[in-house]
Write a structure and sequence with these properties.
The complex is a heterodimer of chains A (392) and B (349). With 392 residues, chain A is an alpha+beta fold. In chain A, 44% of the residues lie in helices and 14% in strands. Chain A has 3 domains: 10-84, Butyryl-Coa Dehydrogenase, subunit A, domain 1 (Orthogonal Bundle), CATH 1.10.540; 123-232, Beta Barrel (Butyryl-CoA Dehydrogenase, subunit A, domain 2); 243-383, Butyryl-CoA Dehydrogenase, subunit A, domain 3 (Up-down Bundle), CATH 1.20.140. In chain A, a hairpin with a 5-residue loop joins strand 6 and strand 7. The longest helix of chain B is centred in the middle third of the chain and has 37 residues, at 194-230. Chain B is built from 12 helices and 8 strands. Helix content of chain B is 56%, strand content 10%. A 4-stranded mixed β-sheet of chain B has the order 1-3-4-6. Chain B has a two-stranded antiparallel ribbon with strand order 2-5. A two-stranded antiparallel sheet of chain B has the order 7-8. The chains are: A alpha+beta (392), B alpha+beta (349). Chains A and B meet through helix 8, helix 9, helix 10 and helix 12 of A and helix 7, helix 8, helix 9 and helix 12 of B.
Chain lengths: 392, 349
């Protein structure tokens, strides 16, 4: 047993940082914050042009000869610059899925377009009446010759306003159990009958409702077999959960806030840190962060040795996302009345980071399988308790 | 990164698991109450060499790693034996460190007696006040108690021992607690000065880490009792295991438990590697595991409904110890603040 973590990308970190300094404009992070769009087109184009998106992909599908380790380090550095690349995150997931289950034609056209930065794909799984129970999707796809006619509505189609396509889960068969009548399609966002409405969220991110009114797509835009959409989506989900556990060397939240708290006076002439209650708060946060890190490392380790971290992945997600909620709630309390000041109000404590993340982390226990779903997986998988959702 | 047990570690876990399961049945734990000590069981624990398992081999011990110790107390915690292994290991290791400092002959003799299993040594976790150590874990049965008095590490010894115990004040964890020192014992200085104090502080750190391991084991049994009961008990026509509030509480519990286990192993590994953050990781493991174990034991007790409140069911044995055992170290609030000092109050470089 050992807990040595090696930064496998260490040799690339400096070069990646240089890429960011050369290519990232200082205003982009603020633009993302104020617009709520977690995608910056110019950044995406530069990542594509420098072969960072195509790193590690076969040349025949549009891959580049850029070192994949360098590419991952650049994406890490972009994230460290407080920039989201959500458009690429979802696109990458779909491209990987297409590589596994797509046709040769799709691999050449879609993967190539995605790696060049021309195709950007949003995920269309959730609906107004189905979130965690994603297989309950009602959006219909009906075959008409060589085409499919798609009708329905999707919710939380994040980044769709910037995307060329949506990866839509649709019902193609009403006569079979719900998981068995689903099919996946790539729906272009410029076709007739497609529409979207922005939805603004507590954390500031803009997402969308997307509408499909007799949208016609050719059969060549079907990904995977007819009625095999559930399986295809599960492939995509593996890629969503697979990344896991970056070995960050940067200071933890507890360390950053403690540094600030030790150098900042409260109105009573003491520093925030002088308050013993705040010391306990910060110590508890530090412990939680270490536990979350270890749970994440366990998932990564299991992936490395070829084991499937099912329950372990759920534990990591459950613990980390619930801990985030506790931490920001405590830290906003610590600031007292000034805890309510938002980042855009000038010079709030810690640039308003705590208030912002107090809001934005609320989604962590909801998306990607709500905490309630994770607890069911854990109760059944680890403790052998009966599965308590109704049989499908 | 490697989270697997080595073959040796796996063998250690299995042999200890079968030893404690056989020797520390709930009946035997109950029979040893209210004093919380079973002299025959202690003899077997000592005969196995467990108190000296991490004493270097050239001093007659087993040369085990800190990680081995934690695996040992994890199995110990699963069966809550009425034998003070945690205190004995921390004290025996302290004697071994003191003997390296070239301390008194008494220390060497005590170490020999501890290694041979002839003497039960404990350690007072707080400095003497007026020559007295209050409520020392295993104080009622220890042949000698090691304690800090100013900058001196002293041994408090008298006629007291496993077969001539002091009276134990009735206590929550049914542990053999007792005051030791002035008016009870002879006080012998074993070593003094900065190195002696540092050696003693390390014993306190080891005690925390061993207790963290025990709490992980204790919590494992407690949650298994809860999960098992939930699969037997019906209410409103269904097994209570079907209720989401039951499932989700247990799922949260096992998640915390596995996090605590990883944290405890990490702290033990850091100790074996001699890493500078060992002390902070140890505090983290102790605080997190203690709080976790009490929460799991309490949830499990309440899941038993009215039966959980009866003395007949075993869960109360675990519930009481989960609260009582770690409390020997002091109010956790102080622990959190001391951890904050370790983590955050270094000077900026």
């Amino acid at each position: 047993m050992d807990f040595v973590t090696v930064d496998s990308l260490a040799e690339h970190r400096d070069a990646a940082q240089q890429w960011v300094e050369k290519n990232v404009r200082p205003g982009w992070a603020w633009e993302q914050y104020t617009s709520g769009t977690h995608h910056t087109p110019e950044l995406h184009t530069r990542l594509a042009d420098d072969g960072i998106l195509g790193a590690g992909w076969p040349l025949e599908y549009g891959g580049s000869d850029t070192d994949p380790g360098y590419a991952r380090a650049v994406l890490d550095a972009v994230s460290d610059a407080e920039l989201y690349a959500d458009g690429w995150a979802t696109t990458n997931m779909v491209l990987r899925t297409i590589r596994r289950v797509g046709t040769e034609e799709q691999k050449r056209a879609i993967i190539g377009g995605g790696l060049r930065g021309e195709i950007l794909i949003a995920l269309g799984y959730s609906e107004p009446d189905s979130g965690s129970d994603v297989a309950a999707a009602k959006t219909r796809a009906v075959r008409d010759g060589d085409e499919w006619v798609i009708s329905g509505q999707k919710m939380f189609t994040s980044t769709a306003q910037s995307c060329s396509h949506v990866f839509v889960l649709a019902r193609t068969n009403l006569d079979v159990p719900k998981h068995k009548g689903l099919t996946m399609f790539l729906v272009p966002t410029d076709v007739e009958g497609f529409d979207l409405q922005p939805i603004y969220t507590l954390g500031g991110q803009r997402t969308n409702a997307t509408f499909y009114t007799d949208v016609r797509v050719p059969d060549s835009m079907r990904v995977g077999g007819v009625d095999e959409g559930w399986r295809v989506m599960r492939v995509a989900l593996v890629y969503e959960r697979g990344g896991g556990g970056r070995t960050s060397a940067g200071p933890t939240l507890a360390e950053r806030v403690a540094t600030w708290a030790r150098s900042t006076d409260r109105t009573d002439g003491k520093t925030f840190y002088d308050d013993p209650g705040n010391q306990e708060r910060l110590a508890r946060i530090a412990i939680d962060e270490e536990v979350a890190r270890l749970l994440g490392l366990r998932v990564r380790w299991m992936n490395e040795i070829g084991e499937l971290p099912g329950v372990e992945g759920s534990m990591t997600k459950l613990f980390s996302s619930e801990a985030d909620l506790r931490h920001y709630s405590e830290l906003v309390d610590m600031l007292g009345p000034a805890g309510v000041l938002r980042p855009e109000t000038g010079r709030p404590p810690l640039e308003g980071e705590l208030e912002h993340h107090f809001r934005s982390t609320q989604v962590g226990t909801i998306y990607g399988g709500a905490s309630e779903i994770q607890r069911e997986i854990i109760a059944e998988g680890r403790l052998g308790l009966p599965r308590n959702r109704p049989k499908q | 990164m490697d989270l697997s047990y080595s073959d040796e570690q796996q063998n250690l876990r299995e042999s200890l698991s079968s030893f404690f399961s056989k020797e520390s049945t709930p009946e035997r734990v109950r029979a040893a109450e209210p004093n919380g000590f079973d002299a025959e069981l202690w003899d077997k624990v000592a005969a196995m060499g467990l108190p000296a398992m991490a004493v270097p081999e050239d001093l007659g011990g087993g040369g085990a790693s800190v990680l081995d110790l934690v695996l040992t107390t994890e199995e110990f915690g699963k069966r809550i034996p009425p034998a003070p292994l945690i205190e004995a290991v921390a004290a025996t290791n302290l004697l071994a460190r003191l003997s390296r400092l070239g301390s008194s002959e008494v220390a060497t003799q005590l170490l020999e007696r501890a290694v041979s299993g002839e003497a039960l040594i404990s350690v007072a976790l707080h400095p003497l006040v007026g020559g007295l150590a209050r409520l020392v874990p295993a104080g009622a049965v220890a042949d000698a108690v090691l304690a800090l008095d100013g900058d001196e590490v002293v041994a408090l010894q008298s006629e007291v021992g496993p077969r001539s115990p002091l009276e134990t004040p009735s206590n929550l964890g049914t542990a053999p607690l007792a005051d030791r020192g002035a008016g009870i014992d002879e006080r012998v200085v074993l070593a003094s000065g900065a190195e002696a104090v540092a050696a003693y502080e390390l014993a306190r750190q080891e005690w925390q880490l061993l207790m963290a391991g025990a709490m992980v084991g204790l919590a494992q049994t407690a949650i298994e009792m809860g999960a098992e009961y939930a699969q037997q008990r019906h209410a409103f026509g269904v097994l209570i295991a079907w209720f989401q509030t039951v499932q989700h509480r247990l799922a949260d519990g096992i998640t915390y438990l596995e996090g605590a286990r990883l944290l405890t192993y990490e702290a033990a590994w850091a100790a074996d590697e001699g890493l500078t953050n060992t002390s902070a990781l140890t505090s983290m493991a102790f605080l997190f595991s203690s709080e976790m174990a009490f929460r799991l034991a309490a949830d499990s007790l309440h899941l038993h409904g009215g039966y959980g409140y009866t003395l007949e069911y075993d869960i109360q044995l675990y519930f009481r110890r989960a609260k009582a055992w770690p409390l020997a170290f002091g109010d956790p609030k102080d622990g959190y603040r001391s951890l904050a000092a370790q983590l955050f109050e270094h000077e900026e470089r």
